[in-house]
Amino acid sequence: FLEESAPKALRETVEDARKRDTLAGDFPYPRWMDKDDYKDALKPLQLELMKLQHWLTTSGARVVVVFEGRDTAGKGGAINRIADVMSHRILKVQALPKPTDREAREWYFQRYVTRLPAGGEMVLFDRSWYNRAIVEDVFGFCTPAQRAAFFDQLPAFENLLVQDGIHFIKIWLNVSRAEQLRRLLAREGDPMKHWKLSGIDVKGLGKWDSYTHAIAETFERSHTAAAPWTVIRSEDKYRARLAVLQHILGQIPYEGKSSIDPPDPAICGTPALWQPELWDDGT
Amino acid sequence: FLEESAPKALRETVEDARKRDTLAGDFPYPRWMDKDDYKDALKPLQLELMKLQHWLTTSGARVVVVFEGRDTAGKGGAINRIADVMSHRILKVQALPKPTDREAREWYFQRYVTRLPAGGEMVLFDRSWYNRAIVEDVFGFCTPAQRAAFFDQLPAFENLLVQDGIHFIKIWLNVSRAEQLRRLLAREGDPMKHWKLSGIDVKGLGKWDSYTHAIAETFERSHTAAAPWTVIRSEDKYRARLAVLQHILGQIPYEGKSSIDPPDPAICGTPALWQPELWDDGT
Amino acid sequence: FLEESAPKALRETVEDARKRDTLAGDFPYPRWMDKDDYKDALKPLQLELMKLQHWLTTSGARVVVVFEGRDTAGKGGAINRIADVMSHRILKVQALPKPTDREAREWYFQRYVTRLPAGGEMVLFDRSWYNRAIVEDVFGFCTPAQRAAFFDQLPAFENLLVQDGIHFIKIWLNVSRAEQLRRLLAREGDPMKHWKLSGIDVKGLGKWDSYTHAIAETFERSHTAAAPWTVIRSEDKYRARLAVLQHILGQIPYEGKSSIDPPDPAICGTPALWQPELWDDGT
Amino acid sequence: FLEESAPKALRETVEDARKRDTLAGDFPYPRWMDKDDYKDALKPLQLELMKLQHWLTTSGARVVVVFEGRDTAGKGGAINRIADVMSHRILKVQALPKPTDREAREWYFQRYVTRLPAGGEMVLFDRSWYNRAIVEDVFGFCTPAQRAAFFDQLPAFENLLVQDGIHFIKIWLNVSRAEQLRRLLAREGDPMKHWKLSGIDVKGLGKWDSYTHAIAETFERSHTAAAPWTVIRSEDKYRARLAVLQHILGQIPYEGKSSIDPPDPAICGTPALWQPELWDDGT
Ligand SMILES: Nc1ncnc2c1ncn2[C@@H]1O[C@H](COP(=O)(O)OP(=O)(O)O)[C@@H](O)[C@H]1O
Ligand SMILES: Nc1ncnc2c1ncn2[C@@H]1O[C@H](COP(=O)(O)OP(=O)(O)O)[C@@H](O)[C@H]1O
Ligand SMILES: Nc1ncnc2c1ncn2[C@@H]1O[C@H](COP(=O)(O)OP(=O)(O)O)[C@@H](O)[C@H]1O
Ligand SMILES: Nc1ncnc2c1ncn2[C@@H]1O[C@H](COP(=O)(O)O)[C@@H](O)[C@H]1O
Questions:
Q1: How far is CA C40 from the centre of its chain?
Q2: Residues lining ligand 1, CB < 6 A?
Q3: ipTM rounded to 2 decimals
């Protein structure tokens, strides 16, 4: 598939990546977490999710979690671990498609506001309004003026949500370039994942640096006191998923909370954890 | 009708009002505008509305006008003079009913955001989010904490709309107490208007002072540089409607604008024009 | 304007129309209704509307009225006479723009279902799902297969609404070719109406016969027992508006109904009143 | 929990169920499916789901699957196995809460129509409009007249969807009384599932027979040629989930379909498979 749609330039990038052996990189652990250890650790966290769900119902609280990250970063998988145990009547996953022609003429945040939770609900955004800052920028789907307007309005918008009492969490799942390539190549090989490869994935691959640039600016402009980013390294999916759960549970004051481990600081932290130079091309 | 539902207290208020002969009051003109003069003045303004409509379509601009005011202030009539000449496909009137149980658990502004115009549209809100500041306060439909939260969020919310390029206008149609009484009594007499009398009208009448207090606070908290209020005295409906049109047309930079008279400063101005002491009970 | 955008063919049609002096035609009255007579007749009907509105609120009934007709047939004006006296919180006018790209991929009736009234509301559709049968057909906005599917589903769809207890009324405002030309020419002349001329108006003019054909088929397929059409000749706007009100009021069993005149059978009736041969080109 | 909220009657039912040793019952297999066998069988089905997803995107087809069944029947789990592998941008899960006060005054099907898929989407309803036929009936949330109206409109409504080309599938997950009791008791014991026990679960338990009655009537009235029910026995969750996937994949003509096993006829079939007498109390 990669061969068909981007025979040269891309293939070269991939081979190049392999030659420079970027696979291991700076990841703080030498090997993936063991599956059984993961399952053991997951169980009590999912039990906490059940308590969180119960508390949502009784307290009428609202939770919004934004999941962002490059393609293959594992947004969907992390979201599914939460969706698996919670009721579809309480937890909603919102993955908006590209704006309709009408939505494109509305206030940019409008279609997201429509999907905010009512009391007693939790909404997970699989990509979010940050599309304008990143994907739309990289692919030229918005004008620079639209993006500038977005950044101007962003802090006020997010402040409103927080001020209104919504528990608001922003998670950036971070994947290294090497790992992204590995996953895309795996998709190519695995008949199952093959079908997951979308045109935008492949195109995105060739735009690593534009992404990097857009992400850096996004952190700079939107990592605010009221609505800070949490960066979670997701090269190891298991560790990342645990950290996602630990972080979310840690942020929300649900009733009956057991003491749970905080997320591993080696893979979960502020945007400082996101160090472009380490994954950068060097070019 | 008045007799049935509020036999004593209210009737007394009305009689009292009559005794003190509050009818004329401080209105700057001794008599209503002549109907023919009104029609002559209306015509060119409605022509300008047609140009405004044309410009909306070609420019993709968005306009929001909030109409607020006490019962009988003439919001509906002023809105209808605009709706009469514009296309239903471009001009939308939004008059939201009381929030559903679900909406009551959402971010307060959410259901209004859903109704904002797309490019090329104009939305007139017949009552608006200011319900929380006034009606809901007077009738106890919200808690003081909810109202405080509303005022805290309001400037940021309206700023976002303005910053996004929406032409945003807030009009307060102001009716004196005497004139309000006169209109309600007229409704009672006129079989046609009789059906317009709602329970809340009658109850509202007895709450003049609570309204006054809520309005004063609203002006204080929400008359901002980005989103200022325009107060239009509406004792004389014709003069008020002309002023509404003149004000709206004056604020919007549509193409092909003819020079039109500015609204009459004797009946259209800042909240300073709203002088509670003049209509106040004196208590 | 006509000259600019369709210099030849159209102008010829217009001149042609003038030459053949089609203006008077077969209209059953020699002259327009007198304005004062109209106003006198309108008043009691609007009073009935107030009762209807009151009844909506107390009974929780639902009313849907579909307004269809060629351009310039006077749909907007008839709607506004109702909207003028009813509350924006009870009466909603729905004038949907062309479908968004997403709506185009949905069940055709979906976006209309979304706008159906809740109990206590009345919705007037300024054009409706019948777009697919007529405008979309004439302008090629839908495929023949889509139109066939529309007609197949239509009776079942409308039956569902009626079966559910919605008071459902379909009104076809009918304008003769001569009168349509006259009105478009008037728009051209009148600076006020000039701005109302849309591209589709002018293009529509040249498609009189395609329209006629589409309309004939529409009546044939959709004039059902459960949801019959009422045709109202609208060459004379005043008479048409009165007939619209009389017809609607006659159909709805609101409380306190006074005896009102039935609509004039010379201008209001079944689709038999629509006689294409009389206005037809003859070609 | 069971003890607290329904100390006697319910406990007795449970003990009773144990005494009569209804656990095994008539289930066609003596033991649960082996977990590893399940995983092996699941994998190729999920691969097929990826192809189905790809085909949705390229063909613009629409799929609706209704999941119904008593509490603990495993609707959520079956849905999650699908959601796990599909994109949140293509697959939507709809689990509507109880109607808002406004929705309660609308056409009953209206809020479901709003959630139908656009082209390229698949919607899974976790409970659906069948609430009116079953849950609302059992708990008295609707009047008999409303339920009768529902059944009257149902075939026409579902026909419209099918006629419009939506791939429409209705699955009834069937759990025996003994197994339902076992699962509720397990929830009571398992701290994790404990939080899943809702008041309605417990109340529902005492209403087994009312449910049975409502279900029988539902099958009778809604198992139509255009929109037939598929009953899947879900005592064994693994077998049930496989059958769900096999059934859905079997019904949809996606491109590149591999030959997959049909669902096991011992646990998946028409409503004939649902035999109330076997699980019935006998009372
Ligand atoms: N033309 C466009 N304009 C704006 N956003 C777009 C456009 N095309 C795609 N997107 C957005 O880009 C994001 C990535 O798309 P895609 O890769 O298809 O989704 P996924 O995250 O499910 O893999 C989505 O959020 C989508 O809404
Ligand atoms: N591309 C399109 N596809 C389908 N419907 C369309 C399209 N363009 C316009 N329409 C419909 O045609 C009708 C007539 O449009 P227009 O003449 O602009 O409106 P009006 O009735 O307000 O004069 C509207 O209902 C509109 O939704
Ligand atoms: N008062 C009510 N009126 C109508 N439907 C209701 C009412 N209360 C609950 N329901 C419906 O009953 C169903 C079962 O509710 P519940 O057991 O809470 O959901 P779940 O299926 O997630 O366990 C839901 O579909 C819900 O919408
Ligand atoms: N219970 C309520 N809570 C909040 N707003 C209400 C309530 N009842 C009425 N309103 C609002 O008060 C305004 C006047 O209502 P009405 O007189 O019914 O038109 C409308 O904007 C309603 O939305």
A1: 24
A2: A 96-99, 127, 131, 135-136, 141, 198, 200; D 87, 89
A3: 0.89
